[in-house]
Design a protein that fits this description.
The protein is built from 10 helices and 7 strands. By secondary structure, it is an alpha/beta fold. A 7-stranded parallel β-sheet has the order 3-2-1-4-5-6-7, with helices on both faces.
Length: 306
């Protein structure tokens, strides 16, 4: 009888969560948003691209910004933009690919600023080359920044969130964390890892009773930052590139509404689902239709963080 009762309760919970998610999808974010005013938000890779826009969006909501980047000049530009909005901001230089540097700067942040309420793991790098043309050191660096840095950041800041049962962790992954792509083998590997790590840590926090520590996984399609300069989209009227401004806003909206997974654009949900049910040959035909095999042929990039 216990099994039957548990099964009935499970189905009621499933129906409730489907209803809640449906309502959240259609209701304006302002209706269901939590306040982040006064919350300390740490963003890695804040010196440009998506990091810049996430920072300014949080600033407009009254958050205090803690900006990390390896590029001091770029980081200060983001800080200046945040100050113009009226938010309090601190900047720190950190090479997130180095574990000890992450831990050292994390200690400095706690001493000089305080504990972090919202952590945005945004820093990223891409080589954009075929596997055999990527130096081994570059592959290691990609994993260190796109995956392992998340581990060190989480170990540095999540314990306080769990102990106070308050906080939010954002993982800027990629739709490339769901599909293998040409000339992105190391990047895809790192984003697959980041996504799996995010999901595991989310469950661990829940198992420890930290029900008010929230997690948001962000899987965007191609964003028009310098990081992916030169990427060619075959049918942009079907799958247009995303602007960093719009993605930054959507990321912050996802945080204030406690959205667990943000996939941009929404239609990419369909492709992720189809991958699980369609034959591989069909997927290859679809990939060829959208020019996936040639999309990185004119890639330029800049090899720096987002």
């Amino acid at each position: 009888m216990n099994a039957i009762a548990d099964f009935i309760i499970l189905n009621l919970q499933i129906l409730w969560e489907i209803l809640r998610s449906t309502l959240r999808f259609f209701l304006p974010a302002s209706w269901i948003a939590k306040s982040v005013a006064g919350e300390r938000v740490l963003i890695t890779g804040a010196g440009g691209g998506l990091g810049f826009h996430i920072a300014t969006q949080f600033a407009r909501k009254g958050a205090e910004l803690v900006l990390w980047d390896i590029n001091d000049v770029a980081n200060r530009k983001t800080a200046d933009a945040v100050k113009e909005i009226g938010a309090k901001v601190s900047t720190f230089k950190c090479d997130v690919s180095k574990r000890e540097d992450v831990y050292r700067v994390a200690r400095k942040v706690k001493e000089e600023v305080g504990e972090i309420d919202i952590l945005v793991n945004n820093a990223g790098i891409v080589s954009g080359k075929r596997l055999m043309d990527i130096p081994d050191e570059s592959i290691i660096k990609t994993i260190e920044i796109n995956s392992l840095a998340h581990v060190w950041m989480i170990k540095a800041f999540l314990p306080h969130m769990i102990s106070t049962n308050h906080g939010h962790v954002v993982t800027i992954a990629s739709i490339a964390g769901n599909f293998g792509l040409v000339r992105l083998s190391d990047y895809c590997m790192s984003k697959f890892a980041a996504q799996g790590f995010h999901e595991s840590v989310c469950l661990e926090a829940l198992a420890e009773g930290a029900t008010d520590v929230k997690f948001t996984l962000v899987n965007p399609y191609h964003i028009t930052t310098e990081m992916f300069k030169g990427v060619k989209i075959k049918y942009p009227f079907i799958l247009p590139s995303l602007s960093p401004t719009s993605v930054g806003k959507r990321v912050v909206d996802a945080v204030v509404t406690n959205q667990e997974v943000l996939v941009l654009p929404w239609i990419m949900h369909v492709f992720v689902y189809l991958k699980t049910i369609l034959p591989v040959e069909v997927l290859l035909k679809v990939a060829n239709f959208f020019g996936v095999l040639q999309s990185m042929d004119e890639f330029v990039g800049h090899g720096k963080k987002n």
